[in-house]
């Protein structure tokens, strides 16, 4: 009987050992799959970092270009506004002269206007 008990224990031990070996194999396969996935993820992160840098450079270059164009337009508009202000001053001077001439004409043409109270 003792032999049978030992045989059973040995058989159980072999079963447990076999089960553990299978679990280890499965675990090693899982770890191998995880490592492959990790390598892919790391490669994708590197690719995204490069794309990010390229995009950042593109955005900065676009902003610089736009800023330069807007500066040129602003300078041109500033020149136009200055010229328009000068024209407005000239027109106001001419308007003042014309008002004075019209006033003298009215006073000279219509004597009763001179006698109107203020």
Structure described in brief:
Residues 10-37 form a coiled coil. With 118 residues, the chain is mainly alpha-helical. 92% of the residues lie in helices and 0% in strands.
Fold blueprint:
Elements: H1 2-109
Keywords: Coiled coil
Coiled coil: 10-37
> Helicity range of the residues?
over 70%
List segments where confidence is low: pLDDT < 50 over at least 5 consecutive residues.
Answer: none
| Distance between the first and last residues' Cα | 145 Å
The structural class is mainly alpha
The main β sheet shows up as: none
Share of residues in strands: under 5%
Count of DSSP H/I helices:
1
Averaged pLDDT:
86
Q: In angstroms, what is the radius of gyration?
A: 48 Å
- What coarse outline follows from CA principal-axis ratios? rod-shaped
Counted beta strands: 0
Q: Secondary-structure element order, as H and E?
A: H
State the domain count: 1
């Amino acid at each position: 009987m003792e032999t049978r008990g030992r045989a059973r224990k040995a058989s159980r031990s072999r079963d447990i050992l076999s089960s553990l070996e299978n679990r280890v194999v499965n675990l090693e396969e899982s770890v191998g799959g995880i490592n492959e996935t990790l390598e892919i993820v790391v490669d994708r992160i590197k690719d995204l970092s490069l794309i990010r840098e390229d995009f950042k450079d593109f955005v900065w270059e676009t902003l610089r270009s736009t800023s330069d164009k807007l500066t040129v337009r602003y300078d041109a508009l500033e020149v136009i506004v200055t010229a328009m202000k000068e024209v407005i001053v000239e027109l106001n001077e001419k308007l003042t002269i014309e008002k004075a001439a019209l006033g003298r004409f009215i006073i000279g043409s219509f004597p009763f206007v001179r006698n109107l109270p203020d």
